[in-house]
Structure formats: structure tokens, C-alpha cells
Write a structure and sequence with these properties.
single chain; mainly alpha
């Protein structure tokens, strides 16, 4: 038994150094001595998962579980089955891992992320809330808030974000606070949050775009245009930003400036339907 542990540990060392062929050789040597060693079988599963040979990985995890039921093995099996798109099996095995070890953070996180990938945000919320109560980890608070936002529960999300100890120094949390306030139609509070976020990360595309849209919601087209102009300088190839600016220019009846941007978009992408529609609108204006 000690010999198997020694060989297996050498294999783990090779694995950690990404020497996968040597790791596999050591694991196979260990299996020659003890073909039913669950640790070695699990390690081979991890090796093949790392090599993206998920079917082989699944087979080794199943062999390990036949020898010994362990939460980690069920978790590893579920992770491989996600890549094999065996989603029902994956969910079942995540839950089996948690039946054996309800407090297992890796299993809880993996199942939460699994639900998020399927847009089952309510199920994911339950797990993140459980993790917050279990450990108090502030990263889990953010994940919980993000899933609440995905469900449209902006007040609940904002209550979590507002209490977060990183709020004042985190551009991302200020952005999330702004998004919540925006969706609650608190445009003044949203603007303040977006501005605090930009004070930390002034080149954030997402935050500045939200700020521009927030200005539009407040009826401040000129400030919105200023933000879209800034974004066009940062991202000169971004067609969406150009067309966002066009919509504002049209509302301000700045026809020539709008036409220049429309033509710039169509020069690179003649098939852009939105730009074509704007151009037709301008041409009708010119014919009046």
C-alpha cells in the first residue's frame, strides 16, 4: 500500500508540473500493484479531464466511485459530464456530492455555476445565499447579487451590494449598484454610481455606455452624446456605439453629423440594416 501511495504521489508531482505523459505512466504503475485504488483512478480521471478527453475521464471517475463513494469523485464526474453535455447526469452527481458533503464549497460553487449556465438563476441564488450564510465570503455575496439582478430583483441585489465592504473601492460593485438604480428608475442615484465606477476605471466601456443610456433616460441627450463620443474615440471600430450616437444626433436634428457616422458604418459594413434604415430616414428628411 505504501508503495502505491509513493508512486501515486510521484504521478501527482508530474501532473502538477504538466508532465502528463510521465504522470500517466506513474498512475498506471500504481494500478498494476492495486487495480482498485480509488485515489489513483480519480487521479487518472483528472489527468484525462485536463487533456480534454472527457469520456475517458468520466470512465475513470466512475471506476473510482465503484471502489469508494466520495464527494470529490462525484464532483469530478459531474464536471466531466458537463463537458460531455450530459447535463441531467451532471446535476444528479453534483447533488450526490452534496448529499455526502453538504458543506463542500467546490461542489456548491460548481452546481451554482452549472445552474447559471442554464439560466436557472433562482436555483443558483439559493446556493449562493447558502454559501454566504455558511462562510460569509464576500465574493459569494457578489455572485448572489448578480443572480438576483439576472432575475430582475434589483432591490434585493442592491441591498446586498450596498452593504458590501468593497463597495467604495470597487468599480464593478459601483457598476452593479448603478445598474440596479437604473432599472429601479432612480436615474440620479444611477448616475452617481456610474460616475464613482468611472473614477476608478475611466475606460470601462460597459460603465460609460450605461452612463450614456442613463442620460438618455433622464432626457439629457447632450450629455449622452458626449459619452458616446468618448466611447467612439476609445473604440473607433465599434458600429453599435456609432449608431447609438446617430440616434442621439437625429433626436437633436444634427443631420450632417449623423450622416457622417452612418456613412462610416456602411463603408465598413454595407449590410448593416440599422444604418441603412437611418440613412433612408435622412434621405426622406432631405427630400422634404
Amino acid at each position: 500500500m505504501e508503495k502505491v501511495i509513493e508512486i501515486n504521489n510521484k504521478g501527482v508531482g508530474h501532473f502538477l508540473n504538466q508532465e502528463f505523459d510521465l504522470a500517466e505512466k506513474r498512475y498506471m504503475q500504481a494500478l498494476e500493484i492495486d487495480s482498485a485504488n480509488a485515489t489513483t483512478l480519480n487521479n487518472l480521471g483528472l489527468l484525462y479531464h485536463q487533456k480534454k478527453e472527457y469520456k475517458v475521464a468520466e470512465e475513470y471517475f466512475m471506476k473510482a466511485l465503484k471502489v469508494k463513494e466520495k464527494a470529490t469523485y462525484y464532483l469530478n464526474l459531474a464536471n466531466a459530464q458537463v463537458f460531455l453535455r450530459k447535463l441531467k447526469d451532471a446535476e444528479k452527481n453534483y447533488k450526490k456530492a452534496l448529499q455526502l458533503d453538504p458543506q463542500n464549497e467546490n461542489a456548491n460553487i460548481s452546481l451554482a455555476k452549472f445552474y447559471e449556465s442554464l439560466k436557472l438563476y433562482s436555483d443558483a441564488c439559493q446556493i449562493w445565499e447558502k454559501l454566504v450564510q455558511q462562510s460569509g465570503n464576500i465574493n459569494y455575496q457578489v455572485e448572489w447579487a448578480k443572480n438576483l439582478m439576472a432575475l430582475g430583483r434589483f432591490e434585493a441585489a442592491l441591498s446586498i451590494i450596498a452593504r458590501h465592504e468593497w463597495l467604495e473601492k470597487s468599480a464593478v460593485l459601483q457598476l452593479y449598484a448603478g445598474i440596479c438604480e437604473f432599472n429601479l428608475k432612480n436615474y440620479g442615484l444611477a448616475e452617481e454610481a456610474f460616475r464613482r465606477s468611472l473614477a476608478i476605471e475611466p475606460d470601462s466601456f460597459q460603465t460609460r455606455h450605461y452612463l450614456a443610456v442613463n442620460y438618455l433616460s433622464k432626457g439629457d441627450s447632450k450629455s449622452a452624446l458626449k459619452e458616446f463620443t468618448f466611447l467612439m474615440r476609445l473604440h473607433p471600430e465599434n458600429e453599435k456605439v456609432k449608431l447609438d450616437a446617430v440616434s442621439v444626433l437625429l433626436s437633436l436634428q444634427q443631420w450632417n453629423e449623423a450622416r457622417k457616422l452612418i456613412e462610416a458604418v456602411l463603408e465598413h459594413n454595407p449590410a448593416n440594416e440599422k444604418a441603412t434604415g437611418y440613412l433612408e430616414f435622412l434621405n426622406k428628411q432631405d427630400s422634404k
